[in-house]
DNA sequence: ACCCTCGAATGTTAAC
DNA sequence: GTTAACATTCGAGGGT
């Protein structure tokens, strides 16, 4: 088997290892998150609602952005956007 | 081969056919939607922005609901929700 | 506001309506598909496998084969090839 | 407002912060993984196949085999079994 | 204890 | 070719 092929093999092995290592870390963090929810539940919080809170807080900044875009939206579509002239 | 098995085979075949038929229809509609976007583009509309408009209009009713829930959210989490007492 | 702009507005409105109408139809069909899977399940079929069958039937056999070969190559490089040894 | 409620509020705040912190970390790792795939691609590897390799390595061989068997059963019923005839 | 609904994660495909 | 939207799939959580 050629040196090139062996080289490629080693590269592949390393790539796979790196990915698997990172995925383990990701899973570990996911487990931590689950744990926090479990604690919250033990403290009497409603986890379903808690998840919703997290989701909403995540989405909020996006929505602001989108609403801003919404203004440009119709204006652009109607050829009235400030930046674009009639072209 | 038993009658039961043949019966099962026929059922499977019918199920697969129905699903494939429905998926074709779904694809056809998806194609129609693409076409409308293409027309819109030809008319000078910005399709990216158009997609955003559609998305936002879809989300709006949901958001209202979610924001309403947001109020209950913290209240529930803090044991202050109207429905639940202190338990 | 100019006549042109009003015209553009109407166009936009119509486009949005057409897209939303089509998306509703698409959703309806998606619901039908779900229903068929539910029926299949009630009849004792494994929906997961059933989905795989549908997927397989969609794919081009040749492409599929090429992917399989490449997969085998990678697995071999990692010493994980099934059936065959190290070659 | 009661001391208890204030206490609950603080707990809630801390919980939310912890979760959000962990989710950030998770996202960071997800970004790292994407990066490794990008590198692999630059080195000439097929990322699609690579992802499949990773997936395969994760799965339990036994379960995998059972699924394969059931898949074969369904495909046979549809006259699509590979390698084997109608039996 | 099981099903079922929901949200997250992945894989695919189209647009630019 | 790269990025982002889209559809599908997988898994966890909650309800019955």
Care to give the gist of this entry?
Four copies of one chain form a homotetramer. By secondary structure, chain A is an all-alpha fold. Chain A has helices spanning 3-42, 47-77.
Helices and strands in order:
Four copies of one chain form a homotetramer.
Chain A: H1 3-42, H2 47-77
Chain B binds a DNA duplex (16 and 16 nucleotides) through α2.
Distance from first to last alpha carbon of chain A: 61 Å
Count the beta strands of chain A.
0
Beta fraction of chain A: under 5%
Count of DSSP helices of chain A? Answer: 2
Broad shape of chain A = flat
Q: Using only CA atoms, what is the Rg of chain A?
A: 25 Å
Q: How many discrete structural domains of chain A?
A: 2
Estimated helix fraction of chain A: over 70%
Specify the biggest β-sheet of chain A.
none
Low-confidence regions of chain A: none
Order of helices and strands of chain A: HH
| Nearest-integer average pLDDT of chain A | 84
Q: Which oligomeric form is depicted?
A: homotetramer
Biggest interface pair, counts: A-D, 27 and 26 residues
Structural class of chain A: mainly alpha
